[in-house]
Amino acid sequence: MFIGHFGVALAAKKLAPRTSLGTLVLAAQFVDLLWPIFLLRGIERVIIAPGETAVTPLDFISYPLSHSLLADFGWACLFAGIYKVLRSNSGGAICLWFVVMSHWLLDALTHRPDLPLYPGSSTFVGLGLWNSRAWTIIVESAIFLGGARIYARTTRSRDPFGSLAFRSFLALLFLVYLINSFGPPPPSERAIAIAALGVWVFVFWAHFIDRHRVVNAPPAEQIDLFPPPDQPQAP
Ligand SMILES: [Zn+2]
């Protein structure tokens, strides 16, 4: 899955209004941003096998550190823990934990059974939505557009950049998604890793968007399930 993860990050802004969209995107894509590093270091493996599924020509031979359920759980705890220490925002940290975990669940929906439960596990999970290109695009686009709609309603532009950067972010992501879905297979495994590292651009872009938009409700009326202990509870 690709843009579906961004849909989760965009939607999560409603539950974590004080957390930057950049951090939410980083959380949603966290294990996909670790994966190319592990590939380049030879710790994990992927091969190009056209026809592997209707959508992706990639055969994920081994990726237990980035994409096993147990590893994702560990990354989610680490990510949320670091955020809590740096930002003292328990609600945001809990939301980020779920956003990191959502990556594995959404990948389990699309991948063929290649996601291990834990490193060394012989049980692999995957419902195989990627066997249908049409259904993959329908489901993933629905999550992406739904998330974009929630983010657009939760925030408003602070200046012209807020709207422009947000719209171009959505458009470029969708374009990249279509190129990935309909374009030729990548030329090499190394090219896959380099392209995957390019997703960092969207993390910084999302951070830029968030700085140029403001959450709609005034802070006192925001739904904050876990306010910091030193702040009075909103009525
Ligand atoms: Zn993934």
Describe this structure in words.
This protein is 59% helix and 8% strand. It has one domain (3-213). Helix 2 runs antiparallel to helix 10 (200-211). It has helices spanning 3-12, 21-28, 30-40, 64-67, 69-87, 90-110, 133-154, 160-182, 189-197, 200-211; strands at residues 45-48, 58-62, 115-116, 124-125, 155-157, 213-215. It has 10 helices and 6 strands, in the order H-H-H-E-E-H-H-H-E-E-H-E-H-H-H-E. It is globular and about 55 Å long. It has 235 residues and is mainly alpha-helical. Bound molecules: zinc ion (ZN). Zinc ion (ZN) is lined by residues 31-32, 67, 103, 107.
Mean pLDDT: 93
How would the global form be characterised? globular
Largest sheet composition: 2 strands, antiparallel
Bound molecules: zinc ion
Segments where pLDDT lies below 50 for 5+ residues? none
Pick out its properties.
single chain; binds zinc ion; 10 helices; two-stranded antiparallel ribbon; 235 residues; 8% strand; mainly alpha; two-stranded antiparallel sheet; 59% helix
Layout of strands and helices, then pairs:
Elements: H1 3-12, H2 21-28, H3 30-40, E1 45-48, E2 58-62, H4 64-67, H5 69-87, H6 90-110, E3 115-116, E4 124-125, H7 133-154, E5 155-157, H8 160-182, H9 189-197, H10 200-211, E6 213-215
Antiparallel strand pairs: 1-2, 3-4, 5-6
Helix pairs in contact: 1-2, 1-6, 1-7, 2-6, 2-10, 3-9, 5-6, 8-10
The structure holds zinc ion.
Précis, in short:
With 235 residues, the chain is mainly alpha-helical. The chain contains 10 helices and 6 strands; from the N terminus they run H-H-H-E-E-H-H-H-E-E-H-E-H-H-H-E.
